[in-house]
Structure formats: C-alpha cells, structure tokens
Amino acid sequence: MSRPKFDCIKTIEDDDEVEDFSDGSDQEESYQPTKKKQTHNEDFSPEFQFVSSVQEYNHDTWDDVAKFIKRKANKKIEDKISSVRNKRLMKEKKAGINDDDLDNEEVNHDDGVNDYELSDDELKRDDIKLKERNLKRSEKSQSKDPGSNVLKVEAEELESEDDFFEDAPPFDESSTFSQMNLSRPLVKAITSMNFIHPTPIQSAAIPVALQGRDICACAATGTGKTAAYMLPIIERLLYRTSQQVATRVLVLVPTRELGVQVYQVTKQLCQFTTIEIGLSVGGLDLKAQENVLRKNPDIVIATPGRLIDHAKNAPSFTLATIEVLILDEADRMLDENFAEQMKEIVKQTSRTRQTMLFSATMTDQVEDLVSISLTKPVRIFVDTNSQVALNLRQEFVRIRRGNERDREAILAALVCRTFRDHTIVFVTTKKLAHRIRLLLGLLGVKVGELHGNLTQPQRLESLRRFKEEDLDVLVATDVAARGLDIRGVKSVINFMMPATLEHYIHRVGRTARAGRSGISVSLAGEYERLLVKDVIKNATTPVKNRIIPPEIIDKYRRKCQQVEGEIKRILQDEADEREINKLENKANKAEKLLFGEKSEKRDWFQNKQEREDEKKKLRLSDPKAPKLTKAEKKQKEKEELKAKKKQEKLKKQKANMFDENTPEGRAQKEMHKISLLQARLAKKKRKPKKIATVYDRKAHSGGDKRKMSSFDVDLTDTSKRNLKKIRHEANSKKKMDEILKKKMSGVNQNTRNKKSIDRIRQKIQQVKEEKDKRNKKQGKRKW
Ligand SMILES: Nc1ncnc2c1ncn2[C@@H]1O[C@H](COP(=O)(O)OP(=O)(O)OP(=O)(O)O)[C@@H](O)[C@H]1O
After folding, report:
1. What SS3 state is found at 231?
2. Is 460 close to ligand 1, i.e. is its CB under 6 Å away?
3. Separation of CA 269 and ligand 1 centre (Å)
C-alpha cells in the first residue's frame, strides 16, 4: 500500500544549519515598483498619546512660526500644472487615445488632483546588485567594521592638538535621562516628545555642556544633536536665573528653514518652562521679529545676516549679554562665506561666554576653529566625519557615457514607479529644481519645490506640506541638505552627485534618522565616479547598484518628451510674469520717489567698499599679495574690470555651449557647474588660512574694548562736545532733507520721473499684449 506523501515539518536540532530567510528580502521588496502607493496602515500609532488639555490639543508648532510670516505663499504654479495636465488628459480622452504610453489609469480625487496608477509593464523589477569594494590591501586593513560605529570618543591625531583640545571625560553609554539630574519641566518635556533613552551624542555632550565647558562635537546625521546642546542650555537657564531681562543664549544656523526647525524644537523642549524664545532669520517679517527681540527673549535662534541687521537697527536688542553661543552645522558656519559676519557677531558677545560647535561633518583643524575663540574645548567625536547613518541603504544608478540624456527619464522612472512618496530629490541648481518639479508634476506626482528662488513663505509652505504628507515628493537644492528633520522621509534621490563627500553625507542624512531605516539612490555618471568610490570606501554596510530595465527607461523617455512642450510654455509664461512684476516694481518705486516717499534705510556693519572687498576675497584672490599704492590700485581695478568683462563673455559663451533644449545639454551644464564648485572648494582648501585676521584679539584681550553702537555713545556721552556734534549733525541733516525735497518737487525732475513711469507702463502693456498673443496662438490657454 502506497502511503500518502506529506511534507512533514521536522524538528530543528541544535546543530542543524538553518537557511536564513530573513535576509532583508522584505525590505528589498519595498524598494521595487508597486501599483499602490505605500500608506501607513497601522491601526494604532505607537507614538499616539492622550493630551491633557484643549490648549495642548490645539497647539501646533507651525502656529508659533505663523506670526513671522507676513504674506501667504501663492499657489499659482500648482494650479498651472494641474490645469495643463487636466486639459491634456481630457483631450486624450476625447480623442480616445489608447496608446500604450498613455494607458495609466488616472485616479481622480475629490480635490481635482489627478493621481496616477502604474500599468503592468511598468512593474518590471529593477535589477539590484551588490557594489563590490575595490580596496587596496592597505585600505582594507584600515576599513572600519560596522561595530566600530558604536560610540567612541576619538583619540587619534590628538597629539598635535593637545594644547587646543581636551579629552572628553569617560561616560556611560547606557546612561539615562534621569541620571543627568535634569529639572522636572525638562523631564516632562522629554517624556512628551517620546525620548526614552539619550542618544550617544546626548550621553556624551550633556554632562560636559552642563559644566559650562566649550565643546566641539561631531555625530552622524539624525542622532539628536539639537537636543544634545539645547537640553543643557535650558537646564542652565532654569538653574541660573538672571535678574535682568536679557538674551543669554544665541544659536546660529546656516539656513532659514533650519532656524525655524530649531525654534520649533526649542519651543517643545521649553513648553513647561517660562523661557522665552526668539527667531531672527532672513526672509520672515522684520517688524514681527523686532517686536519679539525688543523683549530680549532668553534664547535667540538666528541666521547671521538677519541677526546683524537687528543688532544694528533694533535699539534695545544687544548681543553683549550672550553667555552661550552655539553654532549648529558648525563647519558651514565657520566657512569663508560666513567669516565676516561671524567675526562681527563673536566680537559683540560676552568674552566669558560658553561656545559649543555641533555638526555631522565637523572640522577639527585648529586653524579652522580659532576664529570662534574656544577656551580649551572638549572634543566629542561620536562618529567620524565621513560616516552616514548605520541604517541607511545606499544605492547608485550608473549613467553610462553617452546616456546623460536619460537622467530625467531615470529619475521619473524611480519616482513614479518605486519611490512614490516621502521622497526628497536633490538637484544642484534652483533653475533645475523648478524644472524637475514641473516635469514630475505634469507626470502626475504630487510634488513641491524648495530652493532660494522662492519667497520665504513659499519655502516654508512647501516644507510644511511635505511634512504633513500633502506632498509626496520634494525637489530641493542643498538649502534643504543640512539639518532638516522631516519625520518619515523614506528615500533621498540625488539627481546628480553633489560636489563633495560632506555634501553627500548631509543630503542622504535626511532619511534614516533617529534609528529609522531609509534609502538613498544616487544617479552617477562617468565624471561622478570618484565620489562614488569615496562613498563605497567609507560605507559600513554594503552598497548596491540599481539597474533599471532599458524598456522602462525608453517608456519614461517618451513620457518626458511628451510633456516637454508644456514645461516650456509654463516657463515662458512665468518669465513674462516676472518681467511684468519687475517693471511694475520699478514703476511703483519711481512713483514713490515722485511723491517724495523715502524707503527706510537700514545700517549694516560693512560699508559698500568693505562689502565689495569681502566679495573679492571670496573670489579666492591671493592673500599674500603685496600692498599697492593708490595709482597701482586704480590700474589694478581697471584691469580687473576688463578681466571681469572678458570672463562674463566667456561665461556666456560657455553657457551657450550647452544646448539647454536637450536633456543631454542640461545635464552637461549642471555637471559643468558642479565641476566649477569642486574646483573652487579645492582651491579654498589649498589656500593658507589667515588666522590672525580672523581671530578678533582686541575684543578678547584685557579690558572690554568691544565697540559700542553709536546709539549707545550718543545716549551715554553727555559731554558738551558730543552734544554740539549731535546738534550739528541734526541741523545739517535737516538742511539736506530740505534741499532734497526742493529738488524732488522741481518741475524738471517731475516731468522726467513721469516720463520714465509712462515708459515703464507702456512696456508693461507691451509685455502683456505679447503674452496674450502667444497664448491665443497656442490655443487660448488660460491658467
Ligand atoms: N533621545 C532621543 N530619543 C528619541 N528620539 C530622539 C532623541 N533625541 C532626538 N530624537 C529625534 O531624532 C531626530 C533627529 O534629531 P536632530 O534633528 O537633532 O538630529 P541631528 O543630529 O541634529 O541631525 P543633522 O545632523 O541632520 O542636523 C528628531 O526627530 C528628534 O526628535
């Protein structure tokens, strides 16, 4: 009798070898094309908490920021994209087009936005291969094992800097917040933010910072550096209360968005205290900021330029009372672009202040740090400068020589098929960011943009909508690369490799934050291979190579070509609008002048010449150049002007070298720009540092020689001579005003101004008519 065949499951013996099925294949699956967008279907969010009051329920940290935003962001461009796209879809429907290329099932939402669904052929899987490290033996022996990523305060290379740095005291990696003896309001805030254990950088930095020591700290992106410096500051403010109302803490950040974010985190950490916080970043309402700063909040979070503006123009706000100075993204804050502004700020703060520097790519070159005048700083390097988060999966898509034209199609294929939501796409230039936004938007992706060509309200609105999952994809320049903490970002795509490894680390650090997993996919052409090699060399987990099937790239190439005309028309329309706005502003300004209205003049710490000089310095001129006489200077200026004109001509020629009408030309132009930046950075590195000129010794040597503002001098100096001087200045100013008024009301001036306004208005009319004509020609399009 034959026995039925059963697949029996046998018991596993202790020494049996068991095949490992948990090799991350689940994760692998989530990085392949899917029909549906992945949505959170957890029944209950582990982060959910009951709130204790209506006030708490209604509290939104964006509300705190709203008071600094004067005008609402306009959503014109979004309307344009959806109008163009909807019209195309309607047209195709009417024509009954059943092309394979257009067979995506469109899903119409209530809000009128079209979403897209993938056709079956687009679900073809990408091929994923392991990228082998190609290390020399010597490099292999140096490469770090993953375990070495665990907290370690670096001892290497310390000998040469012994005099400058001090070793961090030993600390317990498994320490808890309760062992840190933080005050009750802080513990309550930490608990409400779901912080259970301190992260390694917090365990290492908080006890040292509480002692009032200067710190120079480096830890990977997303490991909680903000709380690492904010918690000890707040604790010190609570513990050492001051009798006078004064701003005691200053946090400097390189970008406006990061400023807003640090402000929001600080607000949350201070929610059970009476500590006041101020925000002073560019692009937001000056008057609203002034009103807040006038009250001298305990902590001010600022970008350098706007802070100096307030310090110069808001009479009651001073930096002289700053006791703690923090530089977030310190290596960026200390680079040449901020050098003059930093010098100005440091000079005005208290001499006995505590200074803390934090970044994921921190410099430990003493000469780079001297400008900030640290006093025996403690060096806390939890991770080395070149490490990405441990739970980040890094992938590359190779663009072969001659295939540069496919970059946009590859990006579209990645975003539309696989990385459909919670994705940030990094590009190099503002112009390209806008173009990619249009491209993806016209393909049906819910996409926003973030770069310097937008107004600040627009920038913050994009960020808010992406954070609140109203947008699936955010296309950004490096303005979003540092410090931004957006919960739930699953993937980062580099449309092009950035200029340096540091830039790369910050960009990919927008995902895989606070212990979560994430993926970065970078498109890398032939010229970008060097940087890819560096990334692989520094990686502690395997790096993958993604190969997209050629037929998919073909399909997306056709899709991109299909919307090319629409992109061009939208860009042209925007250019017209910009021209009209520019002319209208000009006309308004001339009108104001005609009626004798003057715009408010604000003081700056540099005069025009000094500003020019700084710009020149940033152009990497030779610091060792000998001093020139007046005649030589004039001659040199003439030559420089000539050279500048020649350079501009060359630049124009070069710009025309790349045909921006083709994807290939556009990619080449972007790469050209990256190579220019790389050359500039390399030159900067080679340039000898001028320590003595950066270090403000005067302000830090005996006796307080800090410059007082003229406002202070006028108020405090009551000598006869000073009073006479003030009276004289007031009288001559009055006279000048009268002469100016007379001139302004002069008939000649009036007619000249009127004529120029008429000319501008005529031009506006002309541009508008041309725009209408073009629109009529293209089928009476109205956005
Ligand atoms: N102790 C903690 N426990 C849990 N989550 C934490 C803890 N500390 C910070 N976080 C969370 O980790 C995330 C990243 O923090 P943060 O933005 O400060 O990182 P970062 O190190 O400054 O990153 P970057 O280098 O990109 O600026 C935030 O969402 C924060 O709320």
Report:
1. helix
2. no
3. 13
- Which tens digit of pLDDT belongs to each residue from 165-200? 787 777 777 788 988 989 999 999 999 999 999 999
**In sequence order, which residues have a C-beta less than 8 Å from that of residue 26 and are 6 or more positions away?**
none
The answer, yes or no, to whether any atom of ligand 1 lies below 6 A from the CB of 251, is no
Q: ipTM of this model?
A: 0.98
β-pairing, 215-218 vs 378-381, is parallel
Atom 16 of ligand 1 has which residue's CA nearest to it?
A: 224
Q: Which two tokens stand for residue 457?
A: 């309200």
Task: List 543's β-bridge partners, or say none.
Answer: 131
pLDDT at 598: 66
Tell me, in angstroms, the distance from the centre of ligand 1 to residue 263's CA: 14
Q: Is the CB of 518 under 6 A from ligand 1?
A: no
The phi-psi region of residue 682 (left if phi > 0; otherwise alpha if psi is between -120 and 50; otherwise beta) is alpha
Residue 445's contacts (CB-CB under 8 Å, 6 or more residues apart) are 116, 415, 416, 420, 472, 473
Q: Which residues, at least 6 apart from 381, have a Cβ–Cβ distance to it below 8 Å?
A: 152, 153, 154, 217, 218, 219, 362, 364
Q: Which of 209, 180, 208 is nearest to 195 (CA)?
A: 180
Query: Which residues lie below 8 Å from residue 658, measured CB to CB, with a gap of 6+?
Result: 665, 666, 668, 669, 672
Pick the atom of ligand 1 nearest to 265's CA. 31
Residue 222 CB less than 6 A away from ligand 1: yes
Decide if pLDDT at 547 tops 90: yes
Ligand 1 close to Cβ of residue 266 (< 6 A): no
Ligand 1 neighbourhood includes 254 CB (under 6 angstroms): no
Measured from the CA of 510, which atom of ligand 1 is nearest? 26
Mean pLDDT score, 89-104: 65
Distance 221 CA to ligand 1 centre (A): 8
- CA angle 439–441–444, rounded 5-degree value: 115
Does ligand 1 come within 6 angstroms of the Cβ of 507? no
Question: What's the 391 CA to ligand 1 centre distance in angstroms?
Answer: 15
Q: pLDDT tens, 284-321? A: 888 889 999 999 999 999 999 999 999 988 878 889 99
| CA 152 to ligand 1 centroid distance, Å | 19
Phi, psi of 204 (to 5 degrees): -80, -40
- Compute how many other C-beta atoms are within 10 angstroms of the C-beta atom of residue 7: 4
Across the range 365-391, mean pLDDT stands at 83
Q: Which residue's alpha carbon is nearest to atom 5 within ligand 1?
A: 195
**β-bridge mates for residue 393, sequence order:** 519
* DSSP character string of 323-376: -EEEEETHHHHTSGGGHHHHHHHHHHS-TT-EEEEEESS----HHHHGGG--SS
Q: Ligand 1 pocket, 395 CB below 6 A?
A: no
Check: CB of residue 396 under 8 Å from CB of residue 520: no
Q: CB of 360 closer than 6 A to ligand 1?
A: yes
- Domains, in order of start, for the chain: 166-381 (3.40.50.300), 387-574 (3.40.50.300)
229 lines ligand 1 (CB under 6 A): no
The tokens of 696 are what?
Answer: 């403000």
Answer whether 513 contacts ligand 1 (Cβ < 6 A): yes
Q: How far is the CA of 223 from the centre of ligand 1 (A)?
A: 5
CA atoms of 181 and 187, how far apart (whole Å)? 9
Token representation of residue 369: 């740090």
Alpha carbon nearest to ligand 1 atom 12, residue: 514
Residue 231 has pLDDT above 90, yes or no: yes
Please state the pTM of the whole predicted model. Answer: 0.76
Q: Residue 620, SS3?
A: coil
Q: Is the CB of 224 under 6 A from ligand 1?
A: yes
The answer for residues whose C-beta is within 8 angstroms of residue 281's C-beta and 6 or more apart is 253, 256, 259, 260, 301, 302, 303, 306
CA distance 303 to 283: 10
